[in-house]
Amino acid sequence: MGRYVARRLLQMIPVFIGSTLLIFCMMYVLPGDPVRALWGEQSADPAQIAALKHQLGLDLPLWHQYWNYLTGLFQGDFGTQIASQRPVADVIAQAFPVTLRLTIFAFVFTVVAGVLLGLIAGLRADKALDRVVLFFTLLLISVPSFVLGFLFQYLFAFKLGWVTPTVQDSEAWGQLLLPAIVLAGLSLAYVTRLTRTSVAENLRADYIRTAVAKGLPHRRVVGVHLLRNSLIPVVTFLGTDVGSLMAGAVVTEGIFNVQGIGNAIFEALNRREGSTVVGIVTLIVIVYLVASLIVDLLYAVLDPRIRYA
Amino acid sequence: MTLLEVRDLHVDFHTRDGIVKAVNGVNYSVDAGETLAVLGESGSGKSVTAQAIMGILDMPPGRIPKGEILFQGEDMLTMSKEQRRKLRGAKIAMIFQDALSSLNPVLSVGYQLGEMFRVHQGLSRKEARAKSIELMDRVNIPAAKDRVRDYPHQFSGGMRQRIMIAMALALEPDLIIADEPTTALDVTVQAQVMELLADLQREFNMGLILITHDLGVVADVADKIAVMYAGRIVETAPVKELYKAPAHPYTRGLLDSIPRLDQKGRELYAIQGLPPNMSRVPEGCAFHPRCPAAQDICRSELPPLAEVGAGRGSACHFWKETLGD
């Protein structure tokens, strides 16, 4: 077990280097120039641009730039934004907790509502309620999240007036509720369907028949014997889902004006701020890796047949 | 005293292809301390009858349109759900065929055994654990104290079936239904498990319904036999008499198809044909298409279960001839 965790942590090193390099290259080949952009529409002195580029190390070959970035990173320096002169570490420190909060919110909503709905539907497989759940989850999967976002905005903010259309204060939990639900939409649909299928299938298992034959109350048969077995595939999905929730946050944050990493990454992309984009994306990759490690460990807790060595 | 009596039990299944009549008027009874073997091929309705007694039939699609199941004189089919649940496990317990799939893979055997005491007797986790270890000792599982935390997949097939037996015995029920308890086991382990079951039955004076298609197992442990075919009982008799002189051609066919040492080298007898599709059971005697002695009357008239001796019945128009042969 300890060895397994150590190995998994070591595996993160090549993934870390690979993902930073990949995104670094992508930023490099993107058209546009962060230094030239400082002047906007005005004409700039080529000599001045060249001098600034030299000062920032942007005239060096790609490998050298990457090397400089990496060595900086290992000294705790995420780089500095060119336009705002803000350290990237500050940008992340401000935006990341907001997105984390949004993601956790969405994640909890996905798990609680998804498993509950899936269980209810799975226990009544092929009955009317099950079909309703299947229909709405299919709808949720088919509709892009920005459509859902605008729809909810229109309905709950403009028509009903329950919430403000955009988030005024990214620190307030209450204001993040609507964006979190929109962000959770797709995952919620998947989790519901996965739980539903798993429950319906396990309901026919021999050990459920045994549990009934033992004279256990229905509540116990479902809550202890059925649910635990049915959650195994759901947990696997949830592990990879943390990553897609963070990626989905980019779109959702745009719709609801949440000042999280989604907005930060969008602005940085527009201004071709390489170090900001690489820093944030790498952070998402690490969160994703850690989440999937936790899920894999949780998997062994849920299913004793799995042993890690 | 009669412990369990099944009277004219009918079980239907409503499927997309129509109504399947799985059990058509089955009667049998078990006394305390007695072993009834229910014999039959797959699809003969022997397991469905057991599930109806146990109250674990899936309803729907299953339905019990007719019949009574009297347990200690009370009809279980008219009881409330809660009353029946309390009987399950405590008074009537069941042992299933495949212990690996019948035990929950993600819960320790100690937990699954202890559940019986916690749910039915309200014992604490700790007390239930102590009882579980006691039970595992009783069914001869070595090092029970260490193994109580293990999971089903960590046991061998024979040990797993012992755990199933332990679970059924936990609350010392009056009746045990064993649905092919040894089918999934090695032959050597089969004998051990059957012996254990028979010993425990004697010790607690329990009634036992042993569902099987293995005639070898039956001869050693059963007191009486009910042979089922196409959802009906075709012959019922005390074990010795049935083996000596079967009164139904189907039973005779089953007995003749047991491999015997003194007939080594000769071709093994097999009943020709296949058991009927339960949604299209043949008219008259359901066995007539496979019966070597079938006459015209067999194709048109359903033979009743006629008394052919003390405690013996046969549902064959020609039971006299069959007995006489």
TrEMBL record, chain A:
Q: What is the similarity comment for this entry?
A: Belongs to the binding-protein-dependent transport system permease family.
Q: What is this protein called?
A: ABC transporter permease
Compartments, record wording: Cell membrane
SUPFAM superfamilies per record: MetI-like (SSF161098)
Q: Which domain of life is it from?
A: Bacteria
| PROSITE patterns, per database record | ABC_TM1
Species of origin reads Streptomyces iconiensis
In this chain the ABC transmembrane type-1 domain maps to: 96-299
Q: How does it sit in the membrane?
A: Multi-pass membrane protein
User: What is the taxonomic lineage of the source species?
Assistant: Bacteria, Bacillati, Actinomycetota, Actinomycetes, Kitasatosporales
Parts of the chain that traverse the membrane: 12-30, 104-125, 132-152, 172-191, 277-302
Q: Which UniProt keywords apply?
A: Cell membrane, Membrane, Transmembrane, Transmembrane helix, Transport
UniProtKB/TrEMBL annotation, chain B:
What family does the Swiss-Prot or TrEMBL record give for this protein? Belongs to the ABC transporter superfamily.
One Pfam family of this chain = ABC_tran
Give the membrane topology, semicolon-separated if more than one: Peripheral membrane protein
| Keywords noted in UniProt | ATP-binding, Cell membrane, Membrane, Nucleotide-binding, Transport
What's the protein called, per UniProt?
ABC transporter ATP-binding protein
Q: Where is the ABC transporter domain?
A: 4-255
Q: Where does it localize?
A: Cell membrane
Q: Matching InterPro entries, A to Z?
A: AAA+_ATPase, ABC_Ni/Peptide_Import, ABC_transporter-like_ATP-bd, ABC_transporter-like_CS, Oligopep_ABC_C, P-loop_NTPase
* Gene Ontology MF terms in the entry: ATP binding
